Every structure is written in C-alpha cells, then in structure tokens.
Automatic annotation (TrEMBL):
Keywords: Membrane, Transmembrane, Transmembrane helix. It is a multi-pass membrane protein. GO terms for molecular function: transmembrane transporter activity. One of its GO terms (cellular component) is membrane. Belongs to the major facilitator superfamily. Proton-dependent oligopeptide transporter (POT/PTR) (TC 2.A.17) family. Belongs to the major facilitator superfamily. Phosphate:H(+) symporter (TC 2.A.1.9) family. It is found in: Membrane. SUPFAM superfamilies: MFS general substrate transporter. The lineage of its organism: Eukaryota, Viridiplantae, Streptophyta, Embryophyta, Tracheophyta. Its main location: membrane. Pfam families: PTR2. The chain crosses the membrane at residues 74-93, 100-119, 139-161, 191-210, 216-235, 333-350, 370-390, 410-430, 450-470, 491-511, 536-558. This is NRT1 PTR FAMILY -like.
C-alpha cells in the first residue's frame, strides 16, 4: 500500500500545531471566511460612523463642529488602536485569536450603542420644530458618557482586529508556491472589494433603516452581522493555516537603535562584509548606503573578547546586517506614511460636514427621500467603478503599452492624492452655491431648494481617490516591509487613517477658535448655515495640493529594498563571533 505524500505549506501550521497540509488547509475557502468578518466589520463601523453626525446634531443637539469632531475622533481612535492589535498578534496571541477576541469586543460595543439609542432617558428632549439649533437642550454629561463608552468599546474591537485580518488572509497562501502566490496577489483586490461592499450596504440599507425605522434597530442589525461573522470565522478553525508569533517587531527595532547608539563612536568598515551577519543566506537583505549611522549596530568591536561559547549574542549590543536593513526599510516607509495623512483628513469631511450639507438640501427623487447619510453611496460607487475600470481597462492597456501589470503602488497613491485635492476644490464651489441659497431663503430654512446632487462630484472625486490610494497604501506597506513586520506595517498604514481623522478634528478646533472672534459665527460654528464651510474646504484644498507636491518629492526619493543577489560571506569565524553577552 502506497503511503500518501503530504505536502506542507512553508512556515505554516495547522490548528493542532503540526505542519499545515496544503491539501487540507489554506486557499480560497478559508480566505473567504476571513473576508466575511472584514465585510461585517466594515458594515458595522461605517453603518454607525457615516450617519452618526446626524444623530449627534439632530437628536443629541450638539453643534456641527462638536459632532464632526466626535465622529472623526471615534474613527481615528479605531484605526490608531490597530497598532495595539498588531502588537498583540505578533507578540502573544497570533492573528487568529486576535481577530476572534476583538471581534467579540466590537460586537459588545454595537450592542451597547443599540441599547443607548433605544432608551429615552439617554437622549435629551425633542427640539421644537421652529427653534434654532442654539435653543435646543443638549445631551447631558451622563447621556454623552454612555454614548462615548459604547463608541470606544467598539473602537477597541475595530482597531484590534483590523490589523490582523489582511495578514491572516495572506497567511492562507504559500508565498514559496508560485501558483498560490498569484492567488495571494488577487486577495488584496478582493479584500478591498469586500471592504467597499460592506460600506455600500452600510450607507444604503443601514442608513435608511436608521433614518426611517429606528436607530436602535439599525445598530442592532450591526450587532447581529458581527456575531454571525464570528460564528462563521470560528467554523473555519480546522481549515486555517497559522503562523508562529515571531516576537514584537517593535522590540527588534529598538534593539537595533540601542545597539547603534551604544556604538555611536565606532568606525564603520569600508568593506560591508566585515559587518556582523548570521542570518541564513536565503533570508538576507542586501546592505544599503542609506542611514549609515544604523550600520554601527552591526560593527564588530575589536576590544570584544572571543565568545565562541556564547550561542546567541546580546541583541541589545549587536545586530546583524539583515536586522539593521529591516529597520532601514521601516524608516523608508515614513515619508510616504506622512504624506498620505492629509488624504484621510479630506475623506473625513465626506462622512461629517458633507453629510450635514446633504441634510439641508433637496433630497427627493419622486416620492422617495434619500437619507442624508446615504448620499455617500456615490462615494462607494466611485470606488467600485474605479477598481473595475482599473482592473479591466487600465491594467490590460498599461501591460500592452509599458509591459507592466498596472501602476506601481506609489503611482496609485499619487493618483489618489491628486484626485482628492481636486475633489476638495470642487467641494468649495458646491458649498458656495449652497450658501448663496442660504442667504436667499434664510439660515433657518429646513430644506433649501437646491438638489443634493450638486454634491456628487466631490463624492466621486474623493471616492475615486480612495480606490487608488487605499489599494496603493496596502500594497506598499505590506510588500515593502520586512517579512516579520507585515502585521505591524499594516497597523502603521492604518494609522494614516487615524492621524488623518485626528488632524481633521484639530483643524476644525483651530479654525473655529481663530474665526469666531468679535462675535462672528466663524467658518465652522453651531450650524453650517451660519458658517463658511467653503472657506474651510478651500483651506483643505490648498493643503492637499501642497501635500501632493511634497509626496512627489518623497516618492522620487524612495528606493525599494533588494534581496541579496550574491551569497554573502557568513561571519561565523572567531572574528565574526567576537561579541559578548555584556556590552
């Protein structure tokens, strides 16, 4: 009887801890289960965030600026906490447990939010129909504290699982197998498709339910989707491929920095082969000349005694060339990281002030009235159409013309930044038109005789920008980071969203403070009908074009890493091993 040959996936384990059998684990079926939880997370998060500003202004009676800042702070915290999720996944829990635990936390947050919006004692009394916003009774501190508790428990869950979902999905494909590697490349497109599909359902079905039926029902549906996704995710436990925790990348980075600082007075040898290197030949990274000061971490000090009896030298004293190059790779990502933050600041306006703009405009299509939050459907449709055009039209043409499979990640990011800058310039013109109608018909007019479709161009341009910039960022941060730091690099990518939202809150606060002197209403006041939102959008448009110019410089400066093409001489001689446990 012939014994069946088991082919194992490289560096992957099954749920029992044995080498993962390729025929029984991984592939598209487990990947789709993982995509399912990302779909439900996006549905839940965006179903709440995109329409939250209308709840805060219309039900809790908060000012426009305060409501916008609450939404952007909530979203910013959600993405910032992805660093926490990445750290726990890499160091202790692994991606599977991280996703399961934080998905449960997010479900708890949505349940609390559904309850808090259902109980009348957690909302202020209704406002008189003809009363200006300033005379409505605002929510009390107690009512707001319950709302904040619900939102930030949800933010913890969202941040915890987001950094691990894409990484765990790619774990289901073996990079050493060319056939599976091609499938993994397709995974990123499908990942963003599921993200966009979840957003589409959120801004259409869920927003309609919240506005026309019940807020608590809409939020309850979010809870049910998340709980169902968790059950489906757990059902795939036996089919998943798992990777061992490699330890915290943050610690590895700190070790290189500390070792370089301790040897700051050392002379770097002219021959790079004299630097310390013990990494297996197939995993080495070629030495680069950028950030030469970090090379001191790999300098072998002459005064170090021979320590052949030391199996593993103190990593806080000396680091291999590959470890140093990994840190250099992470540093090279930072300029691109910094110049993409402003995009997410403009994106924040699409789910805050732009939704509030829509709430003041004519939204009827026949007998049907479009919910203000649902106008972002054009934003999502622009994303999906842009992705389809890129995949089906641009890639084939580009491959035939240039011989390359589409734009590079940096080119996609640049296109996204430019489109968003143009989008904010168009938003200025649309708001000027709306304010003209405000002056003509009065600031307290409930619905201006101006079609909400005037806002479509800004949604389409910024939405198309997101299609390019999100896929470009995800591709860039995962492919240009070291293998052992892909989860944390995904978390770093998501912090661009976090800082973009926080920057939006900061700008709103600063602009409000600087423009409300002498009794003026300011650019962003209690109501957008009393402010100059066009000036605020103009400021963002200027900042976006400046940022685009800076990005072009940073993209030209960036140099991708290269693997070693020649086998480097392994430094395992007495001289190469002359490092000691005590520095």
């Amino acid at each position: 009887m012939e014994e069946k040959v088991v082919i194992s996936a490289a560096n992957a384990l099954d749920y029992k801890g044995f080498p993962a059998d390729k025929s029984k684990t991984g592939g598209w079926i487990p990947a789709v289960l993982i995509l399912g939880i990302e779909f439900c997370e996006r549905l839940s998060t965006m179903g709440i965030a995109v329409n939250l500003v209308t709840y805060l202004t219309g039900i809790m009676h908060l000012s426009s600026a305060t409501s916008a800042n609450i939404v952007t702070d909530f979203m910013g915290t959600s993405f910032l906490l992805s660093l926490l999720g990445g750290f726990l996944a890499d160091s202790y829990l692994g991606r599977y447990k991280t996703i399961a635990i934080f998905a449960l936390v997010q479900t708890l947050g949505t349940i609390m939010l559904a309850i808090s919006t259902k109980l009348p004692q957690l909302r202020p009394p209704l406002c008189q129909a003809e009363s200006p916003p300033t005379l409505c009774k605002q929510a009390t501190g107690y009512q707001m504290s319950i709302l904040f508790a619900s939102l930030y428990i949800m933010a913890i869950g969202t941040g915890g699982l987001k950094s691990s979902v894409s990484g765990f999905g790619t774990d289901q494909f073996d990079e050493s197998d060319e056939k599976e590697k091609s499938k993994m490349n397709l995974f990123f497109g499908r990942f963003f498709f599921f993200v966009s599909l979840g957003t589409l359902m959120a801004v259409t079905v869920l927003v309609y339910i919240q506005d026309e039926l019940s807020r608590s029902l809409g939020y309850g549906i979010c809870s049910m989707f998340m709980f169902t996704a968790i059950l489906i995710f757990l059902a795939g436990t036996r089919k998943y491929r798992y990777k061992k925790c490699a330890g915290s990348p943050v610690v590895h980075i700190l070790q290189v920095l500390v070792a370089a600082f301790r040897k700051r007075g050392a002379q770097i040898p002219a021959n790079e082969k004299l630097l310390y290197e013990t990494t297996p030949e197939g995993s080495r990274i070629r030495h680069s000349d950028q950030f030469r000061c970090l090379d001191k971490a790999a300098v072998i000090m002459k005064e170090d005694p021979n320590t052949n009896n030391i199996i593993s030298p103190n990593p806080w004293c000396i680091s291999s060339v590959t470890k140093v190059e990994e840190v250099k790779m992470m540093i090279r990502l930072l300029p691109i990281w910094a110049t993409t933050i402003i995009f997410w600041t403009t994106y924040a306006q699409m789910i805050t002030f732009s939704v509030e703009q829509a709430s003041t405009m004519e939204r009827n299509v026949g007998s049907f009235k479009i919910p203000a939050g649902s106008l972002t459907v054009f934003f999502v449709l622009a994303i999906l159409i842009s992705l389809a055009v890129y995949d089906r039209l641009i890639i084939p043409v580009w491959k035939k013309w240039k011989g390359k499979p589409g734009f590079t990640s940096l080119q996609r990011i640049g296109i996204g930044l430019f489109l968003s800058a143009v989008g904010m310039a168009v938003a200025v013109l649309a708001e000027k038109r709306r304010l003209t109608m405000v002056k003509k018909f009065g600031r307290n007019t409930q619905t201006l005789p101006l079609s909400v479709f005037f806002l479509i161009p800004q949604f389409v341009l910024v939405g198309s920008g997101e299609a390019f910039i999100y896929t470009g960022q995800l591709d860039f941060f995962i492919t240009q980071s070291p293998k052992g730091m892909k989860t944390i690099s995904t978390g770093i990518f998501l912090t661009t969203l976090a800082f973009g939202f926080f920057l939006s809150s900061l700008l709103v606060t600063i602009v409000k403070k600087l423009t409300t002197y002498g009794g003026r209403n300011g650019w962003v006041g209690d109501s957008i009908n009393y402010g100059r939102l066009d000036c605020f959008y103009g400021l963002l448009a200027i900042l976006s074009f400046i940022d685009f110019g800076i990005y072009l410089v940073c993209a030209a400066w960036y140099r991708p890493h290269t693997a070693a093409t020649k086998l480097q001489t392994e430094m395992v001689s007495n001289k190469g091993s002359s490092t000691e446990e005590k520095c």
